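pasting input
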Amino acid sequence: MSSTNSPTMSLPKLSDPDTASAMFEAVRSVAEHSFFAVAEPGDERSFATQASAVSSWLVATVRFEQGALKGSVSCTMPTSLARGLFDAFAGRDPSEPEPGAELVHDLVGEFSNMVCGAWLTRVASSRTFTLHHPTVEPASTPRHDGGPRLLAVIDDVPVSVEVTLKAEPQLG
Amino acid sequence: MRILIVDDSAMMRAMIKRVIKLADVAVEDILEATNGAEALELLKQHDVQLLLTDINMPVMNGADMLREISLNERWRNLNRVIISTDGSTVRREEAEELDVRCYLEKPFSPEVLRDVLNELADNEFAETE
């Protein structure tokens, strides 16, 4: 089996409008198809206002590789939204016992995994990629490294998505 | 029909199991594995008719597992379905070479998986009649 990966290829950054649009479509598609949730575009001002009322967040990061290009996609969402998405995904009845943190983390990891894969498929469909098992960390405030990020609102709750790209140095 | 689900996400395995139970297929048993290596061990121990597998997994990924399966005559009749976030054309072409019956791209709605299961079960039944 052959791969069309090439070390000279690169991915556009989230500051590029088409790339950001592809990321929002990835988030919307994952939210609607797998979690029966409604996703809308967000903005910095509304995000800051809504986020200030939230004290418990989950940050799920998926590392990916496309040939020599390495990077990661991190989805940050309130823990309350993660639990709501869990119920939708698992079909949990409110009368059933609450899921443990491990299952909720697994769920947020799978959400990020799907967003990352759906985005990569949209921006580079001719190239295969490898996704690593997600890591999920709790946080008291939303993570933001200062770079461009995609903000969205899922079921009226703020969500942010960041992409980090790291191209390996070319030899010769 | 015995089904093997291979995915490193416990939540995804649980969701697939739920859809299988909602589908109109006669299921004898549902086995689970978290990666390709675990799945190959289960395939050696059990007679499985349908394999539902992710691609990106630790230890052994789904593509390497499917390559192993395609080399073993014992698993010639095993129905193979990929359920993956990787919708790249390269991966889809690779799947065709590995005798994969259906390629389901995540995210997918439960109805889509249910329809795939029903169609596979219908074909399986027709072929064994």
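fyi The CA atoms of residues 30 and 54 of chain A lie 23 Å apart.
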